[in-house]
Recover the amino acids of this structure.
């Protein structure tokens, strides 16, 4: 039985895993001599779980709700992004600065900087309003543009890429993952749901 | 006769729910997307790590009581001979501003990357071989380490400390665990990413519009979905959203670092504002006089700076002002990633050393009037103390220092972290511990 069968990977994998674990072991050893090593260990493991068991279910739920709402409103494909993108950016900024926004460190922050942290919630709401405002503006422009395109293009009345409800008919060859040449006569509908076999 | 099969540690069929391939619907997930996100993270994390370790060096932890967490270097080996340059004077403002800006910029990409590999948490069987088990253990170092290091840094710059341990030590050693995990992850995954880019192209999939967006091809064990939902955003749409988040986060760091009118861009940055309405002293501080614990009277007319070493001397503020004054345009550069360049004037430390009969200041311990706090004192290297721009500042922008900026006198020095530019100076001790340490 060779290394690959016994261990499951080649020698480089084994050597680098030993190196990585040794370095981590050194850091753990150093931390064990610091204050509150158990607290550090708990926080470290909790950090590993934070995204997977807390953040992921929360943002996935919002994502699903946005998808459901979008389906119920019967909007065009992609229209949901005019809500989703500013919401993601606003949530991101909110997440990064939540200790200041919620005033969790208000006393320390004031002692350090000489300023109150009261302004941050207003600034975050202002930034969110700007983001949603810009997105709404972009949506209005896209609606107007697709309405204009529909009036001037009688041959393709159903083609509305971003605005009103429309089909997702593909007009150009797929890029990237579906590499088969697309035939103009092919049924693009069925191709969209069944990707062509990869030539590899 | 057939031998009985050895017992399998795991049932062959995965449990229902996320352990099954069909659970994961996003048509954008796949090895190419994860590779792209990883490739965007790698340079940011590399720069963030290098500048982080540089900051550690900039504090000269080998001198005096500078180290916040004991004196040991890597495995007890002293690697501080590398030193930290004093030129240009803004080098620490640059490296530390970069540390914070790259760290902020990495956060949205890190979240996206964690999202993209989510199905991996539920892979079945959970442990396949010793190599696979070690890989999964290393993910604790990688995922736990990255989130721990980013959150601790992020909360430190917002003065929020919900944990029981020392921030500096945990951020430093947590980073070492994280980087060890990252190094191993690169050995395992870099070939996968390169293979993806060779077959799919680095950016080719970004050319597809929403209507053209196809899922990556599913294979057993791949990240690409077995049963994808229709795409609701293109890959370029997703990447552009992440990039916008990254830019927005970085902008707040950069604004605090470059200062001037750009400081207003740091809308949610902790130092997006100055310190007071007073024009000459209107730039940020890391500690106000109010929480320094210093009695008002101690900084009044009776204040003297005690010079220790040589013949020793006590000087009042008037006597200091009567000495030759030196001006220097130097940044106050905080470890928390903000900085502000001002025009300081006062007496050179080198001139104060001459006043007590010394040729040069040597390694110099500066103590504040504060009675408590890790940074009530700092030891400057002989090179830092002897620099012609290192001054005991009495004025800033032509006006007396404000109480928050260290009245009656504070140290300013080129390329020295702000926390070592001691405010409310009470005493300066020259020639502490020989002159054999690096400049």
């Amino acid at each position: 039985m060779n290394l690959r069968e016994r261990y499951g990977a080649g020698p480089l994998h084994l050597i680098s895993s030993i190196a990585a674990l040794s370095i981590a072991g050194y850091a753990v050893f150093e931390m064990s001599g610091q204050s509150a090593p158990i607290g550090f260990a708990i926080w470290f493991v909790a950090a590993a779980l934070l995204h997977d068991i807390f953040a992921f279910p929360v943002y996935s739920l919002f994502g699903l709700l946005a998808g459901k709402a979008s389906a119920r409103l019967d909007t065009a494909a992609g229209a949901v992004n005019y809500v989703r993108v500013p919401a993601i950016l606003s949530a991101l900024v909110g997440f990064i600065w939540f200790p200041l926004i919620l005033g969790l460190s208000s006393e320390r922050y004031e002692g350090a900087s000489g300023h109150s942290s009261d302004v941050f919630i207003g600034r975050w709401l202002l930034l969110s309003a700007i983001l949603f405002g810009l997105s709404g503006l972009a949506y209005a422009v896209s609606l107007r543009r697709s309405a204009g395109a529909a009036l001037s293009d009688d041959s393709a009345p159903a083609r509305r890429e971003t605005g009103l409800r429309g089909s997702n008919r593909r007009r150009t060859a797929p890029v990237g993952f579906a590499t088969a040449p697309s035939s103009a006569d092919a049924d693009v509908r069925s191709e969209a749901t069944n990707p062509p076999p990869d030539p590899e | 006769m057939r031998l009985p099969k050895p017992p399998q540690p795991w049932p062959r069929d995965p449990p229902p729910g996320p352990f099954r391939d069909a659970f994961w619907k996003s048509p954008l997930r796949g090895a190419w997307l994860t590779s792209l996100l990883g490739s965007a993270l790698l340079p940011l994390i590399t720069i963030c790590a290098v500048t982080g370790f540089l900051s550690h060096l900039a504090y000269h932890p080998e001198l005096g009581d500078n180290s916040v967490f004991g004196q040991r270097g890597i495995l007890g080996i002293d690697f501080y001979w590398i030193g930290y340059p004093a030129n240009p004077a803004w080098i620490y403002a640059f490296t530390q501003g970069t540390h914070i800006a790259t760290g902020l910029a990495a956060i949205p990409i890190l979240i996206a990357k964690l999202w993209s590999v989510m199905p991996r948490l539920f892979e079945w069987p959970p442990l396949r071989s010793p190599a696979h088990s070690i890989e999964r253990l290393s993910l604790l170092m990688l995922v736990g380490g990255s989130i721990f290091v980013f959150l601790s840094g992020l909360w430190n710059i917002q003065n929020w400390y919900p944990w029981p341990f020392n921030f500096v030590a945990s951020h430093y050693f947590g980073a070492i665990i994280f980087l060890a995990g990252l190094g191993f992850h690169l050995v395992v995954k870099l070939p996968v990413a390169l293979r993806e880019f060779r077959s799919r192209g680095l950016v080719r999939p970004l050319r597809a519009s929403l209507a053209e967006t196809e899922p990556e091809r599913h294979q057993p064990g791949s990240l690409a979905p077995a049963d994808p939902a229709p795409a609701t955003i293109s890959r370029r749409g997703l990447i552009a959203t992440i990039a916008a988040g990254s830019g927005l986060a970085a902008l707040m760091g950069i604004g605090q670092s470059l200062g001037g009118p750009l400081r207003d861009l740091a809308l949610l940055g902790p130092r997006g504002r100055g310190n007071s309405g007073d024009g000459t002293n209107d730039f940020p501080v890391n500690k106000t006089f109010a929480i320094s614990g210093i009695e008002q009277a101690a900084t009044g007319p009776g204040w003297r700076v005690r010079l220790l070493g040589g013949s020793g001397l006590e000087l009042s503020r008037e006597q200091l002002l009567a000495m030759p004054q030196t001006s220097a345009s130097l940044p106050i550069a905080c470890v928390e990633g903000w900085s502000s360049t001002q025009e300081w004037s006062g007496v050179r430390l080198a001139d104060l050393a001459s006043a007590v009969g010394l040729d040069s200041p040597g390694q110099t311990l500066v103590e504040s009037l504060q009675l408590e706090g890790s940074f009530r004192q700092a030891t400057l290297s002989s090179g830092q103390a002897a620099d012609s721009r290192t001054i005991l500042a009495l004025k800033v922008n032509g006006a007396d220092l404000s109480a928050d900026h260290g009245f009656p006198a504070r140290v300013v020095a080129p390329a020295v972290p702000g926390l070592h530019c001691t405010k409310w100076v009470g005493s300066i001790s020259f020639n502490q511990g020989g002159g054999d340490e690096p400049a």
Q: What stands out?
A: The longest helix of chain B spans residues 167-200.
